[in-house]
Description:
- By secondary structure, the chain is mainly α.
- The chain has a single domain, classed as Ammonium transporter AmtB like domains (Ammonium transporter fold, Orthogonal Bundle).
- It has 14 helices and two strands; from the N terminus they run ααββαααααααααααα.
- It has helices at 4-31, 37-64, 97-113, 125-148, 152-156, 164-182, 195-214, 222-250, 255-269, 278-302, 310-328, 344-375, 382-387, 389-393, and strands at residues 67-68, 72-73.
- A two-stranded antiparallel sheet has the order 1-2.
- A hairpin with a 3-residue loop joins strand 1 (67-68) and strand 2 (72-73).
- Helix 4 (125-148) packs antiparallel against helix 6 (164-182), helix 10 packs antiparallel against helix 11 (310-328) and helix 11 packs antiparallel against helix 12.
- The longest helix has 32 residues, at 344-375.
Amino acid sequence: MFDPASDGFMLLAAALVFIMTPGLALFYGGLVNRKNAVAMMMQNFFSAGWTTVIWVLFGFTLAFGPDIAGVIGGGHYLALLNITPKTLFSGNHVISLYTFMIYQLMFAIITPVLMTGAFADRMRFKGFIVFITLWLFLVYFPFAHWLWGGGFLQQWGVEDFAGGIVVHTSAGFGALASVFFLGKRLHPKPGNHSIPLVVLGTALLWFGWFGFNAGSALRVDVDTNVAFVNTMIAASFAAITWMFWDYLAMKKWSSIGFLTGSIAGLATITPAAGFVNPQAAMIIGILAALISHWAVNFVHKKGWDDSLDVWGVHGIGGFTGIILLGIFGSAAIYGANGLIYGGIEFFGKQVAAACLAAVYAFFVTYGILWVTNKITPVRVSPEEEKKGLDEEEFAEQAYTE
Length: 401
């Protein structure tokens, strides 16, 4: 039976997830060189319009249409056909299918632009448009169907509460592929150009993440509360852990370390938010900071130019969260028991799914970039990179002298 309270909550959760995209634009925009701030922000904002067009025409039905062989959804909802205001979401029959569709759209909007931080300062906007279009069809829509739309991973018993695989592993390992394909920047940025923008962006991301995780309960019940509580706990434990680790290494406090740590905690708790108890969320937050911090340092030592640490924070965060869910998942909360409760088989499924997703996202993304580069050049010229993308690609500048 339709539940107005749950439906209203889900619309609010959708709005919260939407605010994460401008939050990400500010977060990334403050981290890049000032001469690329507009380009970075527009790569993020553009997805809000472009992905919406693709989603309502094709994406929703490919992700959540009738299952075809566990691989993709059928065309029943093409261009939102066969949906009326009275159509209920078959997953719980308490919210409108329109509400479910618009909530899932917000995930589709933010996922591909998580990768923009990895190739900051060096991708053409035209190439970016072609790239995210292909990426949505070949990576995001299949992943959403496999885990949430009745696909083979969901049928197998793999769990992903709010996007450890669908969002963070897919984007994070796709970002790593873009790092290898595009190569290093010729003129790396001289530090973060606006820490206040990064702070504001983090605030919006953290705020929106409550809709991201708690909303993934898809109704108002006790699991909504658990996901909300775990989101705050994991983010806080991770932020503090990262900041103190930085202090031990540098003997100085780092605001960027605190902010980055909070995002790592949020990414890592995402797949487990509604499936673990708060005590597990504390441990997950600490491990999120330690493992992601190591991953970021590993990338730097290797000399890979992941400009804004997307792989280390989102890719490794989501990947780690899926595996930790396989360890700490509790049927007393919701879902399956993890390893510590005797769920050996479930743990194995989580590890296998995380590895499959990482490999698929990396190689398919690399292939998409190769195809995109055949259609239109992906990387800007050395001269354009030196001048900055704002001057070369857009008619605006973030700042005037």
